[in-house]
Specification:
The chain is α/β, with parallel strands linked by helices. The chain folds into 2 domains: 238 residues, Aspartate Aminotransferase, domain 2 (3-Layer(aba) Sandwich), CATH 3.40.640; 101 residues, Aspartate Aminotransferase, domain 1 (Alpha-Beta Complex), CATH 3.90.1150.10. The protein has 9 helices and 14 strands. The strands form 4 sheets. Strands 2-10-9-8-5-3-4 form a 7-stranded mixed β-sheet, with helices on both faces. Helix 4 links the parallel strand 3 and strand 4. Helix 7 packs parallel to helix 9 and helix 8 crosses helix 9. The longest helix has 22 residues. The radius of gyration is 21 Å and the shape is globular. Bound molecules: pyridoxal-5'-phosphate. Pyridoxal-5'-phosphate (PLP) binds next to helix 3.
Length: 357
């Protein structure tokens, strides 16, 4: 089987050795002669997985002892509702920055729960940039931001400076670069972009922020209930948590965030340089806001797209088509994608230019 270069935006690429270990655990986990999929989540063996997963998240994000780590079902989309439900006081206001479809979905849910203020938006230019220079009222209960906009290919290069607690959807760039986790009251990320398979969402929350809304809480939507239950109030998504743990171990073993940030910088600059050099393509976002995870670009002559797709397929490049809202192309350069795959894409872009320019 020849190697496929997997640029999928999500669920995204995982390290080959992690997939190997995960498949082994499906047959014989921890030498129990039982599958990970058929043992109790309250067994010692799985409790160890949960503890190690939590410890790795704290280490990779540099979180202090006030933070609790949860792995819940429902996707990042459930967090769009759980965040305001747990952090927005019944007489308070939550602030949001609207940088794309995911942010707008978060806003839609927050509005159902309480007062919501959209502090800034880039909807006017189809979300091709990150808003800057806006005022943040310091009375907000929190400010919700999306660090990386998976669909459009924009990324916050730094975070708003404010006294207001920050809440961040890091679904598509978690563990991709150095951030100070303690700058955020809450961070959440669906696993399937840069951490593991679909089915688990990681939530890191400063416990001191909880229990202040004045609202009666449904148990399954209450972070405090899940914290009290050590993220096992009900049966947790055991397999996605296990694979996320393996991916975090892989990251740590290879040199952690410092290592991956360097690799990610190199991959992104290699591809953006080619987009800027190549006469057939143009990037779709403001240059200063370019994402290092999702690189979006279009063709000057869209009629040639099928020709490019043919070359890409011959070179075993997969998952390059842009999101239906943007069109063109999107190359997702998640942690597990090697530089070699970016080089393969660049070669195809160059061959394409030679043939059709
Ligand atoms: C994919 C994505 C989501 C939605 O995740 P689900 O797990 O499908 O609910 C939310 N936010 C961002 C930034 C994403 O990339």
């Amino acid at each position: 089987m020849s190697k496929v270069h997997n640029f999928s935006a999500g669920p995204g690429i995982l390290p080959a050795e992690v997939l190997q270990q995960a498949s082994e655990a499906c047959i014989n986990f921890d030498n129990l002669n039982l599958s990970l999929l058929e043992i109790s989540h309250r067994s010692k063996n799985f409790e160890k997985v949960m503890d190690e997963s939590r410890a790795l998240v704290k280490e990779l994000l540099g979180l202090n002892e006030n933070y609790k780590i949860l792995f819940l079902g429902g996707g990042a989309s459930l967090q769009f509702a759980m965040v305001p439900y747990n952090l927005l006081r019944t007489d308070g206001t939550a602030g949001y920055i609207n940088t794309g479809v995911w942010a707008s979905k978060a806003i839609k849910e927050a509005k159902m729960i309480g007062n919501t203020l959209v502090v800034a938006s880039s909807e006017d230019k189809k979300y091709t940039y990150i808003p800057k220079g806006f005022e943040i009222p310091d009375t907000l209960d929190y400010l919700h931001i999306t660090s990386n906009n998976t669909i459009y290919g924009t990324q916050m290069q730094d975070f708003p400076k404010t006294k207001v607690p920050l809440v961040c959807d890091m679904s598509s760039d978690i563990f991709s670069r150095r951030v100070n986790g303690n700058d955020f009251e809450l961070i959440y990320a669906g696993a399937q972009k840069n951490m593991g398979p679909a089915g688990a969402t990681m939530i890191a929350v400063d416990e001191r922020a909880l229990g202040k809304t004045g609202r009666k809480m449904l148990s399954m939507l209450d972070y405090q209930v899940h914290i009290k239950g050590d993220s096992m109030y009900n049966t947790p998504p055991v397999f996605p948590i296990y694979v996320s743990m393996l991916t975090m171990k892989w990251l740590k073993k290879n040199g952690g965030i410092d290592w991956i940030e360097k690799v990610n910088n190199e991959k992104a600059s290699t591809l953006y340089s080619e987009i800027d050099r190549n006469s057939m393509f143009v990037g779709t976002t403001a240059i200063e806001d370019r994402s290092k995870m999702n690189v979006t670009f279009i063709m000057h002559k869209p009629a040639l797209e099928s020709e490019f797709d043919k070359l890409a397929k011959e070179a075993n490049l997969s998952g390059l088509r842009g999101h239906r809202d943007v069109g063109g192309y999107r190359a997702s350069l998640y942690n597990a994608l090697p530089l070699e795959s970016v080089n393969a894409l660049v070669e195809v872009m160059q061959a394409f230019e030679k043939k059709f320019a």
